[in-house]
Amino acid sequence: MSSAIDDATAALAKDLDISKDQMRMLKSTFEAFDLDKKGAIAIDMIGQILDMLGHQVVAEELNKIVKEIDSDGNGELSFEEFAHLASRFLGEEEEDTEAILRELKDAFRLYDKEGLGYISTDLLREILKELDDKITPSDLEQMIEEIDADGSGTVDWEEFKAMMIG
What are phi and psi of 133, to 5 degrees? Predict the structure, then answer.
């Protein structure tokens, strides 16, 4: 499997308004499902692929999408057909990620009342207890140790973001 993309694939990425990295990811996903290496994947794999990319689609919507994308009606998707389909979902993912990061940043600012750029691990302990009231003290301490990797007793934005995103 090659991580490089050829000129035609780069042009397709531009047409679909996705990055070359996103196109590489689509290419490797496609190649992983093209078991026979014939340059096509069965349309019945599409639901599974979208699921893997984090998008659950109901059967009715999936059938509508497949009919639209499988333009030649052969029951298989070429890489180009697959890229057109998958690219629809990539933009949504980026917007969702940006929105989540904005919300996390706002939440962090709420806790960082003095605007110091960090919160104490004691405050984080309280936040984690509120989020999960069944958390054991030892699990809580282990989480705090992992989050506050430098042992400073504080959690900055990057540590907070890494914890919340996982």
Answer: -75, -5
Q: 23 near 83, Cβ under 8 Å?
A: yes
- C-alpha span between 98 and 68 (Å, rounded): 29
Q: Which domains does the chain have, with CATH numbers?
A: 7-92 (1.10.238.10), 112-165 (1.10.238.10)
Q: Give, in degrees to the nearest 5, the angle at Cα 116 between 111 and 120.
A: 55
Structure tokens at 65: 């999408």
Give Cα separations from 124 to 54, 62, 102, 163 (angstroms).
29, 42, 19, 11
Mean pLDDT for 51-65 is: 78
* Cα angle 153, 156, 161; round to 5: 125
Q: What is the reported pTM?
A: 0.50
